[in-house]
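Sequence in, structure out. Go.
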Amino acid sequence: MAGRIRKSDVDEVRSRTDVAVVIGEQVALKPAGVGSLKGLCPFHDERSPSFTVRPAVGRYHCFGCGVDGDVISFLMELDHLSFADAVESLAARLNFTLTYEDGQPQQDVANRVRLLEANRLAAEWFVAQLPTPAAGPGQQFLTERGFDERAAAQFGVGWAPKSWDALTKHLRERGFTDTELSTAGLVSSGDRGVYDRFRGRLVWPIRDLTGATVGFGARRLLEDDQGPKYLNTPETPIYHKSQVLYGLDLAKRDISRSGRAVIVEGYTDVMACHLAGVPTAIATCGTAFGVEHIKVLRRVLGDETGSHGEVVFTFDPDAAGQKAAVRAFAEEQRFSARTFVAVGIDGLDPNDLRVQRGDEAVRAMVEAKRPMFEYMIRRVLDAHDLDSVEGRSSALREAAPIIADIRDTTVRPGYTRELARWLGMDLPEVQRAVQRGRRGEPRREPDRREAARAEQQEAPKRPPASLRSLPDDPATRLEREALMMIVQVPHLVGGDLIRRSTEVGFHNATLAIVRDAVGSQLGALGGAGWLERLAAEVPESIAPIVGELAFLPLPVRPSQEEQLARTAKATVASLVDRHLLRQKADLVRQLQRTEGASDTDRLRELRQRLVGVEAERRGLRSA
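Output:
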């Protein structure tokens, strides 16, 4: 892996990237007040736009769901990238060369870029070959499976000609060396040198989460092809089949929004599901669904403790499909999400089901899913003769450990009762069998869902604060507007006036916390990371308030700086003047109580203080 990206480079990439341009590629943004753009939030469903972008500040904020951040966090959230991947993606857009503090040398990073470019050009070349006469077998294959030209283009399907060096020559002409092509997995080596790895095959590009092509899967179609039915890119520095899920680049946003992922078994099944209206379908690339795949999927699914996601597996009814079911079940409890199994009518896979029964049948198959535990128990029962005592006893011995392995104590009794009903046995007998199954060593890690329910039984957490939850009385409005100016344009308000504003009393306790955060950061007013510093100073539940203050529309356009400065100073000065007015009223009351008393020194002190307050108020008005 690459080392840590130098902080100065991260700051440079962030400052040189127009957040409105990047977000505008995904969200239709329209002007919405002074210095703001607004659109529908990409992170939650809404009908009225509440997602605001402030290009001058370089940040976004949604007043609907509370999501907030800069251009780097936007890519991380939307495309489910790591911090480094997001920065590298933005740097590539800027043609900016990053430097790394430790770990992988810069040359290795440059090599990775070359490998990705070779794969990108290869994918384009394969696509260009598909309409040619030589690609007739590939065209026929797609047509028979219900895929037209538009579908092929959507998934980047191409054709590898039956040639030993057509792709090799094409990429050599683009400046790539044989060593680079071999490292990328695009060519193989023999006694006479390198030759094209994929020949006379239909080709699918395999992309990572960012949409970059990292490898290929190729289907055998010609009779004289003695190779495997599917030939994939070998392990390379950019392609690791245990960590890549086909179609995830297309499905990631739908998976994240819906909280559902559908796992199918092949490239054409993914295509069929997407075209039939199941855009959350993904598949492994020539390997079993394993632990590393689960890690990737859980990140996209947002599969955290307490989540309510769904993972739906589809398995073929043949022996290979049943083996896949057993492997998936072995890892089932690595998910916090609920797991299901969907089986097509007559055992048809999604592609065949779409061809024979239509799009609605594919959608119906997914909706008719059954819980994974039920599927595995019924699979055991189907393998036994339940009409005989011996068959029922054998089925109980095999099915009881499955139920015993359910860590969710709220679900286990229900399956115990179901098993007793399916077997026609007395419930106590089945309960004893399940209890015996629990006495052994646990076979899988604890179920996160049980921990989730335990957490949910605790006292509910206080929801994050929001400006909308605050009162709308005049005192609170003034405090909110003054803090808005301090947060957004501190350089126009001025350090001295801001310092004085942090010493005044606040009517609203929540906004007073933000005031105190400003007071603790007076030495960093308006500097780099100003908003992040303020957010870090307040409790986590109050942090959204800072983000909202940064995105409230200003009453004057930022381009009209002189007028904006007058407005900003006047607003904060009004807050300070309110405090001074309270002091004046308090001094007047003290004077009234003291008049006629013999303590002349006390009277003199109060009058001097009153004169001082009036002088300070005049100074505010003239500033």
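Check: The two ends are 56 Å apart (CA to CA). The chain has a mean pLDDT of 85.
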